Amino acid sequence: xxxxxxxxxxxxxxxxxxxxxxxxxxGARGLHGSSMSxxxxxxxxxxxxxxxxxxxxxxxxxxxxxxxLFARQxxxxxxxxxxxxxxxxxxxxxxxxxxxxxxxESNIDLLKxxxxxxxxxxxxxxxxxxxxxxxxxxxxDGDGICIACIEHPNAPPRRFTSIDDDCSCEERxxxxxxxxxxxxxxxxxxxxxxxxxx
Length: 198
Prior knowledge:
Layout: H1 2-13, H2 17-23, H3 35-48, H4 62-100, H5 105-116, H6 119-135, E1 136-141, E2 144-149, E3 158-160, H7 170-175, H8 180-186
Antiparallel strand pairs: 1-2, 2-3
Helix pairs in contact: 4-5, 5-6, 6-8
């Protein structure tokens, strides 16, 4: 009987059980399985089978297989190096733009982030920084600090006892980056606290 009640509660709360678990798993980034592993497997099959991934018809000797895989890896490394070089160039350009820009609190904070983060993580922080400025407000409530969403006034606020507290929102847990709530709470990129190292 108790098991049935638990199953009923589970059925009522979540429609997609796997995604629900992933959203609560720290650092999972909301991904199903290892996408990197799947992509690598598919890429290897495609390379060895003249562009086909469904059936493996590769029947060469082991030494030829090793040579072909090294050739694929070399090509893959060159492509990734080009991508990383382009991203680094874009970040250097962004840093220079921020250095020349108006010395606002937001721009100074973005400059600190740009000097530490890669392009992908910087873009995520930039979006969250803007959202925290425009859509969230912070206020004191008794002994705690509340972060409320202006866009959804009926939504319950996030409560923190101090700026050292961590956030338990899905974005913070799955992506392990600074969510809008933490940016609003601390007001700075990786501000020195018990949970973060600058």
